[in-house]
Amino acid sequence: MTTWLTPFDYDYMVTAMWTCTLIGAVCGLLSGFITLKGWSLMGDALSHAVVPGVAIAYLVGLPFAVGAFTSGILAAGAMAFVKMKTPVREDAVIGIVFTSFFAFGLLLISLYPSPIALKTIIYGNILGISPSDVLQVVIVAAICLVVIALKWRDLLLFCFDPNQARALGLRAGFLHVLLLLLLSATAVAALQAVGAILVIAVLVIPGATAYLLTDRFGVMLLLGSALGAITSLVGAYASFFVNGETGGCIVTLQALVFLLALAFAPKHGLLAGRRARRSAQNEGALS
Asked: Cα separation of 274 and 287, whole Å?
């Protein structure tokens, strides 16, 4: 029993576990909107686009969250501008912009070495997170939670049917920008835990898993948040024993939970689908 409690003897592990839990809860909550809106590629783009902002922030002595958030917003604006001004398809625009931002970030890191290592940006460094960075993560997470709590119904309608949202008097443009801001801010918060490469996973997998388990959006949000928090906590805890990257442990665990839901979900799982087909075949044979 004492062995299993060993991680709690180290302050850095305790900090990592509760910080990952907070990040996982916020990412899981936002994941429902991303899944409903079909913005997985947008999340991937913004998670990579924050890299140059992180590099510049450390070079000039600003908090990493400021640089990363600014870079994410600039990338989102660049994608919107190119999409409006050219006939290029949206998926191509996203690919062009996020790879360009990511490449620029890698170039800056190679030209101007800074206290932050490339590995830290790519894979995260939750075990070595500083108190100031913890405070930044907490502030970002708190803002995201408050905004979602106040606007989740409007965001739901916007994600489900923007035209219906406009017909009901909602400002679809404002909600579009708000969702982008939330996505950028959450990607910044998750950057410390899982790194730029795996941010998209923690922003998509919990919501996709919850989508398989329920048809009610409110339940989906809560379930996605709970899945994100629990898997992040357990993943951070397990990383101590396997001596592996914390982000890799978290995302691997989330993927395993998704596979279980894919197989055993009561309504949308593979086994449930097979039973439904057999039932339909039997009814057809009897008729």
From this structure: 20
**For 114, which DSSP code?**
-
Burial class (CB in 10 A: 0-12, 13-18, 19+), 138: middle
Look up residue 18 and give its two tokens.
């509760």
Model pTM score = 0.85
| Domains of the chain, first to last | 21-205 (1.10.3470.10)
d(CA 210, CA 35): 10
* DSSP letter, residue 126: G
Amino acid at 180: L
In angstroms, the CA 137 to CA 141 distance is: 6
Residues 156-181 have a mean pLDDT of 83
Distance CA 235, CA 250 (A): 4
Q: In sequence order, what are the residues at sequence separation of 6 or more whose Cβ sits closer than 8 angstroms to the Cβ of residue 43?
A: 34, 183, 187, 199, 200, 203, 204
For the stretch 206-238, pLDDT in tens is 999 999 998 888 899 999 999 999 999 999 999
Strands, E assignment, 195-239: none
The C-alpha atoms of residue 234 and residue 151 are separated, in whole angstroms, by 30
Cβ atoms within 10 Å of 166's Cβ, excluding its own? 15
Rg (CA), the chain: 20
Q: Using pLDDT thresholds of 50, 70 and 90, give the confidence band for residue 285.
A: low
C-beta of residue 194 within 8 angstroms of C-beta of residue 253: no
Centre a 10 Å sphere on the Cβ of residue 131 and count the other Cβ atoms it contains: 8
